[in-house]
Design brief:
It is extended, with a radius of gyration of 31 Å. The protein has 401 residues and is an alpha/beta fold. The chain is 41% helix and 16% strand. It has 3 domains: 8-156, Rossmann fold (3-Layer(aba) Sandwich), CATH 3.40.50; 172-282, Alpha-Beta Complex (Hect, E3 ligase catalytic domain fold), CATH 3.90.1750.20; 286-392, no CATH class. Strands 1, 2, 3, 4 and 5 form a 5-stranded parallel β-sheet that branches.
């Protein structure tokens, strides 16, 4: 009597790089699974059984492992629910040689075999591994070639002034992959440029727009999610003012090319606005991080609960440091009553408080305190009380907002 074959639980993994065609009744993922199921059926005499659970990644690249179905597959492998992974082609699992090596090591660790329907090889032998690595090297090469073609196509498209991707912006709609001027919104764009030339401040422009009830452009994505329709901030105003699409140009990789769509703002006004923005010395978060601030991300406003951030100003060639409520910086100085506080005074007070707490901690003696720290600010001193009244940790929800 012949011995019964060991049951081999087979999981089918399918992948498609683009979402195009996935809404069809029989798409690429279904075709891959059908081929894999037929192959498993042909190995039924070896004890192979197809698992009903589907591992389909539609619209995910093979260049990385950030795929939900792949993550679920690996989780089931580690849980011991799978004995064999079946794919239509090797590049369906991964197009990265490094990622594929990691996956094969994981398969070997849990005694899981790997089968490609259209490419016959055995990963348990050295020759099979060599064949697999050669196939995967060509898959990675193909992926890089595709990436180069896409980049070259985008560059050629931008040089012709055509639409190269991205969502609609205030004043410009995307119709049939072309920018079309929205006349009603174009009036708002021109008004924002005029208002900035008058106020010379992105923050003041944001406050004025919000006071009139004007919101950012609202549009619906293909997924159904809604973007925009929010209050203006100094950053959203700044990004609108530096957008060269408003003067009829397309920007790609930092270079501007004449676009097919009409300009909304004149080039002369746009250049005047850029000169004013440069004169304002608007610093980004990246510039601020380069500067040292002892209490960065450590304190919050006692009035609105927002984070208190470091800020700087130059007067007569001298730099002054402050801590300012982030809500005031984003939406306007009239939005929070907390004044800008001198950074040096706050930092000195906090350091003195820490020294005092350490000096009076259990197990410490009076001799352990250094002479330099004696006579400094004590806990609950008037200086600390004055600062604490204006700047505290986040209050309870019942506090002022």
């Amino acid at each position: 009597m012949s011995e019964s074959k060991r049951i081999v639980r087979c999981a089918i993994y399918t992948r498609k790089s683009h979402e195009e065609g996935l809404d069809q009744e029989f798409n690429s993922l279904d075709a891959q699974r059908q081929s894999a199921e037929s192959y498993i059926e042909s190995q039924r005499h070896e004890g192979w059984q197809c698992l009903r659970k589907r591992y389909d990644d539609g619209g995910f690249t093979g260049g990385n492992m950030d795929r939900p179905a792949l993550a679920e597959l690996l989780g089931d492998i580690q849980a011991g629910r799978i004995d064999c992974v079946v794919v239509y082609k090797v590049d369906r699992l991964s197009r990265s040689l490094l990622d594929f090596a990691k996956l094969i090591n994981l398969f070997d660790k849990h005694a899981v075999s790997f089968v490609s329907v259209t490419q016959q090889f055995n990963t348990t032998t050295s020759m099979g591994r060599l064949t697999l690595n050669i196939l995967l090297s060509f898959a990675q090469f193909e992926r890089e070639i595709i990436g180069e073609r896409i980049r070259d196509k985008k560059l050629a498209t931008a040089m012709q002034g055509k639409y190269v991707g991205g969502g609609p912006i205030l004043g410009l709609d995307v119709v049939d992959k072309k920018y079309v001027v929205n006349e009603e919104e174009a009036k708002q764009v021109r008004a924002i440029f005029d208002l900035f030339e008058k106020l010379e401040s992105c923050r003041k422009v944001a406050v004025a727009l919000n006071a009139e009830g004007i919101r950012t452009k609202r549009h619906v994505l293909k997924s159904g999610k809604v973007r925009g329709g929010r209050e203006w901030t100094y950053r959203s105003v700044y990004e609108l003012l530096i957008n060269r699409k408003y003067i009829g140009q397309i920007v790609h990789k930092g270079k501007a090319y004449p676009g097919e769509h009409e300009a909304i703002v004149s080039l002369e006004q746009f250049e005047r606005v850029q000169a004013q923005l440069r004169a304002n010395k608007t610093y980004t978060h990246k510039h601020q991080v380069r500067r040292f601030a002892l209490l960065r991300r450590m304190i919050r406003c006692g009035h609105c609960g927002s984070r208190v951030m470091p800020s700087w100003t130059n007067r007569h060639g001298r730099e002054y440091r402050y801590y300012t409520c982030a809500k005031k910086v984003r939406t306007g100085y009239g939005e929070c009553p907390l004044p800008s506080l001198p950074a040096g005074q706050i930092e000195t007070t906090v350091v003195d408080q820490l020294r005092a707490l350490l000096r009076h901690a259990p197990g410490r003696t009076a001799r352990s305190a250094s002479p330099a720290t004696r006579g400094r600010t004590r806990p609950h001193s008037p200086a600390w009380t004055n600062l604490a009244s204006g700047m505290t940790r986040r209050r309870s929800p019942s506090g002022p907002c």
